[in-house]
Prior knowledge:
- By secondary structure, the protein is an alpha/beta fold.
- Helix content is about 30%, strand content about 25%.
- The chain has helices at about 15-25, 45-55, 70-80, 110-125, 180-185, 205-215, 235-245, 265-275, 315-330, 380-384, and strands spanning about 5-10, 30-35, 35-40, 60-70, 95-100, 130-135, 140-145, 150-155, 195-200, 255-260, 285, 300-305, 335-340, 355-360, 365-375.
- The strands form 2 sheets. An 8-stranded mixed beta sheet has the order 2-3-1-4-8-7-5-6. Strands 11-10-9-12-13-15-14 form a 7-stranded mixed beta sheet, with helices on one face.
- The radius of gyration is 23 Å and the shape is elongated.
- About 40% of the residues are buried.
Amino acid sequence: xxxxxxxxxxxxxxxxxxxxxxxxxxxxxxxxxxxxxxxxxxxxxxxxxxxxxxxxxxxxxxxxxxxxxxxxxxxxxxxxxxxxxxxxxxxxxxxxxxxxxxxxxxxxxxxxxxxxxxxxxxxxxxxxxxxxxxxxxxxxxxxxxxxxxxxxxxxxxxxxxxxxxxxxxxxxxxxxxxxxxxxxxxxxxxxxxxxxxxxxxxxxxxxxxxxxxxxxxxxxxxxxxxxxxxxxxxxxxxxxxxxxxxxxxxxxxxxxxxxxxxxxxxxxxxxxxxxxxxxxxxxxxxxxxxxxxxxxxxxxxxxxxxxxxxxxxxxxxxxxxxxxxxxxxxxxxxxxxxxxxxxxxxxxxxxxxxxxxxxxxxxxxxxxxxxxxxxxxxxxxxxx
Length: 384
């Protein structure tokens, strides 16, 4: 049985501290933050656990070789020298993904192509048969990372990106990425200790991720496959053991998670996704216009939402965002409200002073996660 080895988890900009904390909580050792990634050490069981449990990771890589590279011949030779049959069979399909920042190579497709040649030639020379390339859905994904003259070859243990949790079948025009949603919830310090509301819930991603955090449900429990399941070394018994032990740590949640949307199609889609995630006992979705609602609880309320930016939905941005501010002020005292927007001008119209502003990216759009504390009565009364 293999002991501890080095791994690397990829994440979104600004989420490195969240991912590092998740890894430490899961039991990783030697956790180090990089740029959009965190390196750590653990054993095979931990690799399975990381893929099942990490809310803010997009991929988990297992490096198998690192070397210096100064030209294409060296790249080919180093890849040819890897004993690929240790990792998978010639009957399986594979694909290379290359990321690089280097003066030696300027074309990632070329690097992937030469890497493919080396792997195929090695299989052909040793086994007289070769695996096939499948770029869309391969059994084995291999990552090449070149920075200056340093090259690292890794097995991608996740396969399809870990934001594809397996619960979302129905989506709207611009659904928020699940890893982004989970990270924003963690940034807002959501811990399942109050009621939760997403007043513009779209396809329900915040609601589902919030319920999974509140109940400590492993976030990828609904996925039916990970790339490591196709490796020669896959240990099914160990995987089931890890999966069961993660499920044993699920906890009860005694508050309400509520979603509103005024579009009937959104309400329908959100409900389908919630049912699909097996979370309907925790989440209620209603067709409501947020601007005509009042706080649905006497107690403290956590609110996290992703209002339209005016990019895809045709809204009067100034009016829309000032209505957000008015509704919060008048109808939602005792609420800790967080919203994400890529329309930085729109925030000027909310008319409330944010207590925090955090720079994040929604896809390629630079955005802000903004926090408004809506106090009971006046702020002065709160501190007296």
